[in-house]
Amino acid sequence: MTGRIASLPLFHQVSGCRIVVVGDGPMADAKRRLVARAGAIPCGEAEAHHAQIAFVALEDEGAAAAVRQRLKAKGLLVNVADRPDLCDFTTPSILDRDPLLIAVGTGGASAGLAKHVRLRLEALLPQRLGELARALAIGRDRLRARLPDGDDRRRAVDAALSEAGPLDPFSETAADRVEAWLANPEASSAPRMEAIVIGSDDPEDLTVRHARWLGTADAIYHAADIATSILARARADAGRYPLEDAPQKPSEGFTLILRRG
User: Which fold, 12-91?
Assistant: First the structure.
C-alpha cells in the first residue's frame, strides 16, 4: 500500500453550464436529473461545442464507444454509464446535507457498494448538519476578526469540531452553539500532544481514535520506518518531521508522535 488514490476527487462548479447527456431511458434520465440538480443545463451532442463534460448512457457498447470518441475529439471529459474503462471520470453516490456534500466513489468498481456505504452514512449523520455548515459560513468574518492568524483559526475550528467539542458535527444541536463559540473560539484550541505506537503498516489496523488524530494533527514527528500508507492518513498540510526532533511538550496546535511498536 503506497497511499496512492485511484482518482482525484473534485467538486466541480457547473451552475449555468451546459453538460451533454446522450441516451434515452432510465440511465440517461438519471444523468439529466443529476445535471439539473447541480444547476447545469442538460443538452444533446449537437451542443457539445458549448460543453466541457458529457455523459453517455447507451446500452449498445459499440454505439457508446463511438459517441465517446466523437465527444473526446471535441475536448470533452466523458463518462460512459456502466463502462468504467471508457470513463474520464466517474460519478459518486451523493449524501446531501446542503451545503455539505459527501461523495462516495469506487472508481467505477461497484456503484452498489458506493450506494450502500452512503446509506450507512445517511443513518449516522444528523439531518441538521447543513445548518452547522451555514452557521460557520455566516460566522467566517467574525472568526477572522477574532483570530486574524490563519493557523490559529484552523486550530480553533479543528478543536471545536472534534469529537465531544462544542461544535461536534455528530451532535444534532451543534448548529445552535455556533454563536456562543464565536464569542470565544480560543477556549477549545489549547496546545496538545499525543503519541501512537504503530505496530502494523496497514492503516486498517489503526483505531478510530488514532485515525482521527492523524487526520487532525498539525505536526507529525515519526520514525523513519513508519509506512507511507499510515502517513497518507494525515492532513496533506500537516508538518512532517523526524522522530528525533520531537518536542518534549506541545507549544501550539496539535502535535502527534508516531513510534514503532
Answer: Rossmann fold (3.40.50)
